[in-house]
Amino acid sequence: MRIVADLGTCEGLGMCEAMAPDFFEVGEDGVVEVLDAEPGEEHRTDLTAAVDACPVLALALQG
Fold first, then answer.
1. 3-class DSSP state for residue 16?
2. Cα gap 50→16, rounded to integer Å
3. First and final CA of the chain: distance in angstroms?
4. Which end of the chain has less neighbouring CB within 10 Å, N or C?
5. pLDDT digits (tens, 9 = 90+) for 15-53
């Protein structure tokens, strides 16, 4: 599984960070940073919820 962030679309709203702070952090520049782009499968449920919570659809899971 791989987390993909569209940095041009991200508005830094922080929903992903609130739901999965071990994997996402919104920097002072207002853009999300993916802290672990290839997390283990055991995190899929939490990451799917975080990705689905992004109101501007800037995140995706591949694989």
1. helix
2. 5
3. 5
4. C
5. 999 999 999 999 999 999 999 999 999 999 999 999 999
Q: How many CB atoms lie within 10 A of CB 4?
A: 13
Quick one: tokens of 27? 């920097």
Q: For residues 14, 19, 24 and 26, what is the CA-based torsion angle, rounded to 10 degrees?
A: 20
How many angstroms separate the CA atoms of 10 and 7, rounded?
5
Q: Say what the pLDDT of residue 28 is.
A: 93
Cα–Cα distance for residue pair 54/60, rounded to 1 Å = 10
Q: What are the C-alpha distances in Å from 28 to residues 4, 14, 59?
A: 20, 12, 19
Q: What is residue 54's predicted lDDT score, i.e. its pLDDT?
A: 97
